[in-house]
Structure prediction request, 226 residues.
Amino acid sequence: MAKKPGSMIRAGLWLRDEVGEGGKFTKAELRAAFPDVAQIDRRVRDLRDRGWQIDTNRQDPSLNADEQRLVKMGVPVWLPGQSKAPEGKASLTDSQRNKLMLADGFLCRSCGIGAGESYADGDQGAQLDVARRKVLMPDGTTQTQPVTECNRCRVGSGGRTADLSGVITTLEKLSALEREVFAGWLKADRRDPSPMERLWGEYRTLPDDARHAVWGAVDGMSKQSK
Prediction:
């Protein structure tokens, strides 16, 4: 008797044959197609780690909240030897995923948004998940490491590489005082802008005439201090 394909392979075949590239489907339709698979949503998510682009309304505003679109098929997981996850992309359990997101402070490590927070453009409810990011190591090798990202950032971050080697090299060039300040940021996992930085940010928002008024004020204060 032939071995029954795994649920991820079955999901891939269903998307290929019943939905097709460019086609839409809902979670209800997906679950109805696989009543015997309790976590079919996760199996579809596993396809994304194999190059399948499946958008929600976070990436495609034309979709309804319950719809998804198969934009592009990736690895043909139904072929022998093709269903294995790429190196560094093995599926995570819920426990592993939660542990990684807790270590990242439940913040997107690309844009800094927290779970459920609104984006600056008013889009509500950021959703976080664990993505994979290439990291350039100090020895010149590249590793793929898990990182928390929101769904919006995951869409455009596939080619992003974090330069750990460059960060450490720059850190070595800091003075002892600068490293002490940096260590404080590490412990707090945040960096509040200094009064000077906030002032610069406010100055940059001023119209041209107002910026020239600031120049005049600085010039006047400089003359008074002499």
About this structure: Strands lie at 24-26, 53-55, 67-72, 128-136, 142-150, 161-163.
